[in-house]
Design a protein that fits this description.
351 residues; Rossmann fold; 2 domains; 6-stranded parallel beta sheet; 9 helices; 15% strand
């Protein structure tokens, strides 16, 4: 995450234009010492489509470029889903030249995903606003702060934000299956043929699985006779940390694609798993699972925040919220410990 942005609220929610005529994102200004007065909202300089400001439907003319400012965000999970929409759009309208104008501060592993999509062109901001004059401009700046982002399933949000309408895209294309077109490296020969992939991490501490829970899960799965691989060390005999091998995005994809079961938090691995039709057990804290996994038939979602104290939160704003998340995890552990056949959830995925 960048440092706190110096920009006032009036300069968020849409892309920005510098007095020099260069296009910027609010996200990127947090890395600079520029005074806010040198930037104005994009809408004050030129027309741009922005579904948060005015809903629209795309009336695209053949041969005209489509410029997506901040397409499709700086997070890996968001990008996987956003690129599913663009992959479908590319196949549906092959005459449409897709140009993504992105932050130069996104993590390298996220940018690797865009490099694996040859059907689009990526540009890094800032750049002259005049570079977008040859087509339609859709402004996706700060999209995760738009009310619709917390109201719609993410794939429908992107479709709506691009003026396409959620019903336009077939349900089968909403499973991120474009990932199967990527050439993947061979997994090491000494890996088990069938394994559970444990993915306890998340970009936000609020959504991360505590080490104690991850260790409990690893022990229980191993006791059931399943090989368990995962990302990060755990003090569990028989568990194998394969984080070093999954050093880049294609290796991560190969790891997910080969799993018999993926156990993940509300994070990118569950979206990758859907792309390869891998059975997934996904844990959610404050976000409604329907907004993330509605279109993933092989995913079983667990909502940990039973009483809704963390409802709608993507990140914790206080230690008290992190402590509440810890209590939610503990309640889930306690419920399993008291139930007959505790941790038997994995068995149905191995029949």
């Amino acid at each position: 995450m960048p440092p706190s942005s110096p920009l006032p609220p009036a300069l968020t929610g849409q892309a920005l234009v510098h007095t020099s005529g260069a296009l910027w994102l609010p996200y990127d200004l947090a890395f600079l010492d520029e005074p806010p007065a040198r930037f104005v909202p994009l809408s004050q300089v030129r027309p741009a489509l922005n579904a948060d400001r005015a809903p629209f439907r795309l009336d695209h003319h053949p041969g005209r470029a489509l410029h997506l400012v901040n397409g499709m965000g700086v997070a890996l999970g968001d990008s996987v889903i956003g690129l599913s929409v663009l992959h479908w759009l590319h196949r549906a309208r092959p005459d449409c030249a897709l140009h993504l104008h992105r932050s130069p501060h996104a993590p390298a592993y996220v940018e690797q995903l865009y490099a694996l999509a040859p059907w689009l062109t990526v540009h890094y901001l800032p750049q002259p606003l005049s570079a977008l004059d040859d087509g339609l401009v859709i402004d996706l700046a700060d999209f995760m702060y738009r009310p619709a982002f917390d109201r719609l399933p993410m794939v429908d949000f992107f479709l709506d934000s691009l003026g396409l309408g959620p019903a336009a895209m077939p349900a089968a294309d909403k499973t991120n299956r474009w990932l199967r077109d990527i050439a993947l490296p061979q997994r090491p020969a000494d890996w088990p043929q069938r394994y559970v992939l444990l993915c306890p991490g998340a970009s936000s501490p609020l959504r991360r699985m505590p080490d104690t829970v991850a260790a409990d899960l690893a022990r229980a799965l191993l006791a059931q006779g399943h090989a368990v691989l995962g990302f990060g060390p755990l003090p569990v005999p028989g568990y194998r940390d394969i984080a070093a091998w999954s050093r880049d995005l294609t290796h991560l994809l190969a790891t997910v694609a080969g799993a018999a079961l993926v156990v993940a938090t509300d994070s990118a691995p569950l979206h990758l798993a859907a792309g390869f039709e891998r059975p997934t057990l996904a844990f959610f804290m404050g976000i409604d699972p329907t907004l993330r996994v509605r279109d993933y038939p092989a995913c079983h979602a667990v909502q940990l925040d039973k009483d809704g104290q963390l409802r709608g939160l993507h990140h914790a704003a206080s230690d008290a919220q992190l402590q509440q998340a810890g209590r939610c995890w503990q309640a889930w552990r306690d419920a399993l410990a008291e139930a007959p056949g505790a941790y038997a959830f994995a068995q149905k995925y191995f029949t």
